[in-house]
Amino acid sequence: MILGIPxxxxxxxxxLIGIGLIYVVGQGKQFSSGxxxxxxxxxxxxxxxxxxAPLATAELVGKYNQNAEIDAQPEVQNGFRxxxxxxxxxxxxxxxxxxxxxxxxxxxxxxxxx
Length: 114
Description:
By secondary structure, the chain is α+β, with helices and mostly antiparallel strands. It has one helix and eight strands. It is 18% helix and 30% strand. It starts with 6 loop residues before the first helix and ends in an 18-residue tail after the last strand. The relative contact order is 0.18.
């Protein structure tokens, strides 16, 4: 007994806390922003830097290795494709997968004045 608590209870508690920590830490690793847009890309660079904004000077928030196939969004700004919320990568090093829907549809024409 330690502090009046049986060792078995302390061990079980420690294991449960460890499992909880692994679960919480693992949640932060996901890049998905919800429903898939149908856009998938392959990384062509040796290592692709993922930025927090569509700027080359933005904070580095992750990396992908060459040939990684990842979900992306059709949105492109300043030469960066949106991968998920606050996750952007240079289009120079991304190649859309065959049949992927990675283009932004054109805006609808204006309604005629009635």
